[in-house]
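Regression test case RT-17, inverse folding.

Input:
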């Protein structure tokens, strides 16, 4: 099966099966990583042992385990000079000290857990100076609190970022803090947007954008300004999707829309010069127009249930 453009563009920012991967936590939490990546599993302790050659690491302690070690980042991490990807609880990142992380670190996945956070903030300037970050993904566990206060100052790492993913409802509208600093951002994934989320703040040079969950009053029309956008994913749009907008985006090659049921001019999708088109659970907007689409014209055409 052909890999979608969005997935291809994201690959450099995530672990791969060819990396030396490790997870620190209980077996149940690490199980998926062991099966998928062949990750080595180490039980959590105050001083877990880590191979200095690991390239991707998941730190997965429970809240009680973090509290027992006073949220300290394992000292062994300093010697992991080939580490490029790190998954870490936000509470531990908020207790970052000088030399806790190797300079090789490029891709940070932060997990906002379902817990009460200690009264502290992340030292984003220290994180910037200590590492070579290119991407930040913030995962928000079910039941996790609003953690916007812990993210204050995150804009100091913006100039280096090429990939950013966050949820407005839990993390606040991060790009609004310093949109002009996102001069190298290529890919943005944003969840939980509403009318107040200003698309006009998005960097006009974005190459890929995913919007997951949008209220009925969210306006897609400003997307037209993103004339370098090649890949667009929309999931759970409550408002109207007007295909006239996409027709004005001349670089668009990959369009993936699911769970979005209000449409204007869906037949115009056949006019777009796309390599990949996917519509799933979208209220069958193409029911009367499927004859306009020819599979040989696409690398991927998935409209069977649309």
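Golden output:
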């Amino acid at each position: 099966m052909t890999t979608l453009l969005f997935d291809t563009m994201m690959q450099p920012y995530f672990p791969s099966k060819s990396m030396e991967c490790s997870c620190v936590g209980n077996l149940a939490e690490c199980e998926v990583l062991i099966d998928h990546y062949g990750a080595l599993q180490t039980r959590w302790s105050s001083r877990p042992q880590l191979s200095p050659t690991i390239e991707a690491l998941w730190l997965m302690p429970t809240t009680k385990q973090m509290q027992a070690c006073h949220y300290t980042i394992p000292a062994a991490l300093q010697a992991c000079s080939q580490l490029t990807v790190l998954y870490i609880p936000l509470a531990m990142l908020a207790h970052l000290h000088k030399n806790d992380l190797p300079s090789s670190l490029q891709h940070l996945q932060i997990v906002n857990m379902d817990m009460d956070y200690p009264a502290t903030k992340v030292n984003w300037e220290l994180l910037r100076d200590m590492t070579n970050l290119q991407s930040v993904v913030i995962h928000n566990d079910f039941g996790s609190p609003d953690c916007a206060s812990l993210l204050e100052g995150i804009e100091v790492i913006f100039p280096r970022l090429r990939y950013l993913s966050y949820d407005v409802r839990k993390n606040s509208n991060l790009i609004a803090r310093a949109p002009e600093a996102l001069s190298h951002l290529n890919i943005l994934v944003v969840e939980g947007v509403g009318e107040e989320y200003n698309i006009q703040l998005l960097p006009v040079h974005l190459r890929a954008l995913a919007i997951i969950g949008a209220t009925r009053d969210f306006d897609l029309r400003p997307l037209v300004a993103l004339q370098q956008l090649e890949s667009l994913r929309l999931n759970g749009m409550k408002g109207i999707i007007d295909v006239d907008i996409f027709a004005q985006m001349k670089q668009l090659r990959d369009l993936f829309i699911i769970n979005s049921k209000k449409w204007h001019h869906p037949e115009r999708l056949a006019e777009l010069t796309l390599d990949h088109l996917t519509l799933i659970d979208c209220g069958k907007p193409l029911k009367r127009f499927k004859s306009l689409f020819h599979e040989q014209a696409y690398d991927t055409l998935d409209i069977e249930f649309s």
